[in-house]
Prior knowledge:
The structure holds 2 protein chains of 2 kinds. By secondary structure, chain A is mainly alpha-helical. Chain A is built from 15 helices and 2 strands. Chain A has a two-stranded antiparallel ribbon. Chain B is mostly helical. Chain B folds into 2 domains: 3-47; 69-294, MetI-like (MetI-like fold, Orthogonal Bundle), CATH 1.10.3720. Chain B is 78% helix and 0% strand. Chain B is built from 14 helices and no strands. In chain B, helix 4 (69-75) packs across helix 5 (80-116). Chain B is globular. Chain B starts with a helix and ends with a helix.
Amino acid sequence: MTIATGEAETPRRSGPARSGTARRVWEHRADYAYVTPAILVMLIVIAYPIYYTIDLSFYTTPPSLQLKDKIFVGFDNYKAILTSDVFWRVTVNTLIWTLASTILSFTLGFATALALHADFIGRGALRAILIIPWVISAVAASYIWKWIYHSDFGVIGAVLVELGIADRPPNFIDSVGTVLPSLIVVNIWREFPFAMIMMTAGLQTVPDQLLRAAQVDGASAWQRFWHVTFPHLRNVSTVTVLLLAVANFNSFIIPWIMTGGGPSNASHIWITHIYELAFGRQRWGVASAYSVLLFIILMTLGYFYVRALAGGEKKGRGA
Amino acid sequence: MSATAESAARRTRRGKPLDWWRWGGRIFLGFMLLYTAVPMIWMLLTSIKSGFAAMQLPPQWWPAEPTLASYQKLLDPQNSVGRDFLHFFWNSLVVSTLTTILGVIVAVPAAYAFSRFTFPGRNFLFFAVLLRNMFPAVIFLVPLFILMRWLGLVNTQGSLVLTYLTFGLPLAIWLLKGFFDNIPIQLEQAARIDGATRFQAFVRIVMPLSVPGIIATAIYSFIGAWNEYIYAYTFLNRNEQLTLPVGIQRFFSENTTDFPGLMAASFIMSVPVVVLFLVLQRYFVRALTEGAVKH
Lengths: 319, 295
């Protein structure tokens, strides 16, 4: 609520100031009609599940999900999670997965956007091709890459053998050491186009006059990028990185389809692990407790997300 | 578009000393093109091989006897695989279209209100809507499953449409709000002075100006719904109701070595969204520039 009260007093709000919230609500009663459908859908599908998950995390439930038979166990589910080895394994995997995917996707996407900023023949076509992986389904992407990584007939392995780099096709996704990096490559393949689109959109807002002025003043290409372009893109970059981080933290499909978390948990990340606990092993209470922990982490990230967006908002009003 | 003027300006701006950067950029782009395109090309090449030709070492780099058998099998309503596949395709189309239409109907008024009105709690609600993006599907799965059971929607496509609506909405509202913010309020005021109601002013003035934003929003919802996997995987059981991603997974778990068939199915599944996106992508980039980035 702090956000609401803090932002509510922006100068844009005119009319009778501070004459009672109730009266203001009443004066604006018609406005709510516009947002009601959206809020209603959100409430049903979001607020209720969140409440429900928190509640369930304190119970053990029978596998059948017959909720009248659930047993209150207090914080036992949380204790069980924090003391298990798998939890730490999965957490490390999640951190590697999220950080590597986010940083590399953003860097590659941003670099591509910059390289595509100067016009040349075929730029539009090239950009279109580069966007495709982001558009196609993650399920299709997972199968395509699973086939490329195939331990007997995969094309990468075949190329390595042909070039004499390897004696026989390596096991990319069936060995503990290589599975996570291999999946991260797939994830970046799907995600860098998003960073590219966002940064392309951002680059279009950098005023040309400023760049020209800097050039007249003798700034090198790098100096122009670092002192003019990049500061302009700070806000877009923050939002893009946050959106990528959240999406990566929440990924499910690629590890789930390609490896199912294996071999021996080497590619389990939080979400796949929670899913397996809930729908595979029917341990709904533990899965809910996991979700609540996840929720707390995401709320922390969300705080920065909202702050970044709110920063954009304020700047927008000033402009 | 002032693309030509812009590029001319850029060419003069970048003199000879910059060639080093430019060449670095080109090499990098070449690398990215390989990274992006090779998997897709390999998918296409595999999909026109026979099952036997696909499983060879060293592989047939170029199919020796290209065949469309996999596509014929998938698209033939006489055959049981084809019947299922066409069913999945149709289901995906219905769910995605419904989600898109409903999403736009709900998002447009909400975004308009967030852009124009200053009711108490506006910012709180706006950020609450955006926060939805933060949470993974898994958190909502169990409670939603129980909720859908209670609503009698389990094993219906209604459960998917309702769920998909919510994860499309946040970005839709955010993008559209940015669009509405950029439309001068004076235009509407002028229309209202001329006797139009707020609704008429909205339909006649604001809507036409925000068509790119609405199209971008619609594409986003459609692609999101088309590609969604986890809810469909959990909520639907009966074979004839599955959407494509889940259907393909089921197909593959029954025919574990039919890689040409799988690649053909992946290709067919990708075609609608890729075509849709490529045709309309300029709206999407423009919507991001106008809505999300520029403010």
